[in-house]
Amino acid sequence: MPGDLQPNPEALLRGATAWIRQETPTGDVDAVGRLVALVERQSQEAGLVTDRFVCVGHADGLRVRAPWRRGRPGILILAHLDTVHAVGSLVEQPIRVDGDRLYGPGSYDMKGGAFIALQALQTLVGAGAATALPVTILFVPDEETGSLSSRTVTETEARQHKYALVVEPCRDGGAVVTQRSGSARFKLRFNGKAAHAGIDHAAGRSAIAEMARQILRVEAMTESTRRLTLNVGTARGGTRANIVPDRAEIEVDARFPDQATGEAIVNYLQRLRPDDPDVELAVDGGISRPAFQRTEDVARLYEIARAAAADVGFDLPETATGGASDANLTAPIIPTLDGLGVDGGGAHTMTEHLLISSLAPRCALLIKLMQRLV
Fold this sequence. Notes:
34% of the residues lie in helices and 25% in strands. By secondary structure, the chain is of the alpha+beta class. It has 2 domains: 253 residues, 3-Layer(aba) Sandwich (Aminopeptidase); 105 residues, Alpha-Beta Plaits, CATH 3.30.70.360. The strands form 5 sheets. It has a 6-stranded mixed beta sheet with strand order 1-2-6-3-7-16, with helices on both faces. Helix 4 packs across helix 10.
């Protein structure tokens, strides 16, 4: 279509690579802060309006706004700058290009998506192509550990906007996400009674034995066909092999398809009782992110995005996923579309990569989507 704004593929590759080169493990305030400063500087140089917000225990978050703010609900784009990779990962996983793949820690999740979001807005500003709605990009520093510090800001911004677009990586070769499981975290602690394992075993009360019985109960709640999973991710206890263990604990990750199921899981776990009446069981935790459900408003937003993708020249399927993101925080408030970032694979591993060929089309999709939403 004449007049289409076309992002420059070479510039996208250079810019994304520069962001990937900045290592940003969530808890490293200085490391994440360096990328925040870079994004802030690039945004200001492009004529965008920026302001930082405090995230206790983490680097600052950053709001980037289009200069055409009109005091009406607009488009909120969500991105995170933190990754799971420690500083030094670039030594083990150097940035490299192999065919269509750009390898590097955090490239897929989600430096690539975060970068093309900013580039899309910069392209619109540079062309003087103001959108019908105001646009805000929210860069948070703590998504990989649950967005505990940034959550309030994200939810507050959502209430002031009309749509949320999330640039987490796409799924299944290009699909956007229109449904995500909710998530919950729990810690179960077991207190028994220590005793000498050889001399006085019967006097002891094994916390580990009780833990094992409860692990089976917890895992048995999983129903994968319903996107309901309970995973005992850690288990620890005891001190030495010749002592009946008086302490043990497990950590449980739960994923659920809807809020009612999530609340039922919380209720089930909090009502667990030990088989051994001489062992105490304490359950802490609850829902951390609500479910992101495919509502009629989400379906309409998806159809707008699908038509925009067709104009760019590619199909845009949709999918559901058990993973959680900040889309879970905005979806109960405003229509949300996730998975708008780059294609690739190997998230959270030493083979993480994005597909270079996805940078320009996904950036063009974001440009068109911002132009079409009213």
